[in-house]
Design goal:
This protein is an alpha+beta fold. The protein has 3 domains: about 1-55, no CATH class; about 85-180, Sandwich (Immunoglobulin-like), CATH 2.60.40; about 190-470, Metallo-dependent phosphatases (Purple Acid Phosphatase, chain A, domain 2, 4-Layer Sandwich), CATH 3.60.21. About 20% of the residues lie in helices and about 30% in strands. The chain has 8 helices and 26 strands. The protein has helices at about 1-30, 70-80, 200-215, 235-245, 270-275, 320-330, 360-370, 390-395; strands at about 35-40, 45-50, 85-90, 100-110, 115-120, 130-135, 135-145, 145-155, 165-170, 180, 190-195, 225, 255, 265, 270, 295-300, 300-305, 340, 375-380, 385-390, 405, 425, 430-435, 440-445, 450-460, 465-470. Strands 13-12-11-23-24-25-26 form a 7-stranded mixed sheet, covered by helices on one side. It has a 7-stranded mixed sheet with strand order 16-17-18-19-21-20-22, covered by helices on one side. The longest helix has 28 residues, at about 1-30. It is globular, with a radius of gyration of 28 Å.
Length: about 475
């Protein structure tokens, strides 16, 4: 009996003590949240002590930065520094993408001359001895810590609708072989991807947009960027982020781009723009617009890129008048069935509390309506809006005018307004796929994860007028 009584008391004590011990251990476990890494002297290994805290009941790790902002920036500058190995390889469209293409890349200053080798893609390993070899135009640029050399080549005499392989280098150090496809010389069906501002958190956030967009639409023939590719135009690491976000896509899918206000340092276009991009030299003969105002004809579509930054100089400035007169000629002289215009600042306000650039509407709105622009693709306001906004005269003539779109591909978002828009959106990253097939244009806007956000179809009749179908 005595032993049974002792055993019973023992069991009762443990039944009482065990929950108490567990509760005390829980409190100790939740008391602190610090992770300390202390390197052991003379050894590359580290002693790790982990303590938990009750500061965050949601059990999230309170990560405290171990480096200053200056140290982090210096690390990224080093990470994106040039070397003898070619990087930032990018294709851009020429005026006639059916028979030519621009190729641009970067190296450090140890590379005196850039070379390109090109062969048709026949499905077998490329043979350098059978390739077309060309030397590049090279310019050197030094900003901040890095001195870099930028190399650019225009490859002409290509066959339409043909796949080619190319590599770039200095003759001994080469890039991988990359592939591209020339445009058809006729109005064949095709699609392209359009992106609004990347600008902020480019490497972490814009990367998923452009990569997911291409993964879902690998048939896209080019990328169209509506400006503000970066936030600080003289910061090399931001351009490094942009090129890392697009990665190998830029070396295989041509790009077109409009310059935004964040590509300018006050009134001056960033030198990185002309260093990284080679665009057609078919713009107006006005100083200050080279490389930012041009057009491309692609399989029955004329794409016109405009520069809205200089419009702040006034409606009667040489740049405003020169660009407007050139625009009228470019739109009136084309036989292309489809006319698409891209510029950074929106024709009509989207951002809540902003009126939008009045000069833009006074200069170009009637021009778009008169010369049959179908689609105007824009950025800047970090929100989404889509609609038509015909002038009074256009309404009287039964002309709906172009469809205006403003979109945002980056992490920065503003409140959305604008009574002209029939579709609006904010707090989301988007990409747009545009496809033309004969007299039909199909437009789809997608969230970064591929979910459909907006959609419409334009059907062009024999008189060149569009009927919009919403489905």
């Amino acid at each position: 009996m005595f032993r049974k009584a002792i055993r019973m008391i023992h069991n009762i004590v443990w039944l009482v003590l065990l929950p108490c011990i567990a509760y005390v251990l829980f409190l100790l476990w939740e008391n602190e949240t610090k992770i300390n890494l202390e390197p052991r002297k003379g050894s590359p290994s580290a002693r790790v002590t982990v303590q938990k805290t009750t500061e965050a009941w949601n059990h999230s790790l309170d990560a405290r930065p171990s480096r200053t902002a200056e140290e982090v920036e210096h690390l990224w500058d080093k990470a994106y520094a040039p070397s003898a190995i070619p990087d930032r390889i990018i294709l851009t469209c020429t005026e006639t993408p059916s028979d030519s293409i621009y190729i641009t890349w970067r190296t450090d200053s140890s590379v005196d001359m850039g070379w390109i080798q090109l062969v048709p893609d026949s499905g077998v390993p490329p043979q350098p001895k059978n390739s077309l070899s060309m030397t590049a135009k090279t310019v050197e640029m030094r900003l901040h810590e890095n001195t870099a050399r930028y190399h650019s080549v225009k490859v002409g005499g290509l066959d339409p609708a043909t796949a080619y392989l190319y590599r770039v280098g200095d003759g001994s150090i080469w890039s991988p072989w990359n592939r591209f496809l020339t445009a058809s010389s006729s109005a064949e069906p095709f699609g392209f991807l359009y992106f609004g501002d990347a600008q902020n958190r480019i490497r972490s956030d814009f990367s998923r947009v452009i990569r997911n967009a291409y993964a879902r639409h690998p048939e896209s023939r080019f990328f169209l960027h509506a400006g503000d590719l970066v936030n600080f135009p003289l910061k090399d690491s931001e351009w490094g982020e942009w090129f890392e976000a697009g990665s190998w896509l830029f070396s295989q899918v041509p790009s077109l781009a409009a310059a935004g206000n964040h590509e300018y340092d006050k009134a001056d276009l960033s030198p990185y723009w002309s260093a990284h991009f080679t665009f057609p030299d078919n713009g107006p003969p006005v100083e200050g617009l080279t490389g930012t105002c041009y057009f491309v004809d692609y399989q029955g579509m004329r794409i016109v890129i405009l520069n809205t930054m200089p419009l702040s100089d006034g409606l009667r400035s040489a740049i405003a008048k020169g660009q407007t007169n050139w625009l009228k000629n470019v739109l009136s002289e084309t036989s292309s069935s489809w006319r698409v215009v891209c510029h950074h600042h929106p024709m009509h306000r989207v951002r809540e509390g902003h009126t939008g650039p009045v000069a833009l509407r006074l200069l170009w709105k009637r021009v778009y309506e008169k010369y049959g622009v179908d689609l105007v693709l824009q950025g800047h306001d970090h929100a989404y809006a889509r609609g038509t906004a015909p002038s009074g005269m256009a309404r009287m003539l039964g002309n709906q005018g172009p469809v205006y779109v403003v979109s945002n591909a980056g992490a920065k978002n503003y409140d959305v307004g604008g009574p002209w828009a029939s579709v609006r959106g904010r707090d989301t990253q988007l990409y747009q796929h545009v496809r033309v097939d004969g007299n039909i244009l199909i437009y789809n806007a997608f969230a970064a994860d591929g979910e459909l956000f907006d959609r419409f179809k334009l059907i062009k009749n024999d008189r060149g007028q569009n009927e919009m179908i919403l489905d």
